[in-house]
Amino acid sequence: MTATQRASVLDLASALARFGMAAVWIIAGIQKLDARMEMAQAIRAYGIFTPEWSEYLAYLIAPLEIVGGLLLLLGLFLREASAVAAVVLALFMVGISQAWARGLVIDCGCFGYDPNDVSQGMNYALTLLRDAFFLILTAWTIWRPYRRYALHP
Asked: How far is CA 3 from CA 8, 9, 35, 42, 142, in A?
């Protein structure tokens, strides 16, 4: 593989990581926008925050996810936006892990929340694997941000 081919492959991986994570954050945020009460229930189910903090976070999370996704999509402060996203993902993973360790049967609320869903809760292992994959994509964007089509890389 020549240096040019290698650079092209790395550029493709960087583009997929950047735009893929932009889509993840924007979609997750949009799905939560009109479901703040349900999101507060999902957050409260983790047993970490008081009801008041759960409601506050329910109002805050969706807009922040959308803004973070837009920063990645538009190419604004790519490394900084990705670093914040990595911290948020790590915190989400800690919350999910503690719920799993405590044996809670809850919906993660990651891409919205359906209080009428009577399933057996989230699959913790798959949810953590998915988030670990997202964390890898985010780390890739920190390491090698795709700067083409970026307004302010």
From this structure: 9, 10, 49, 48, 22
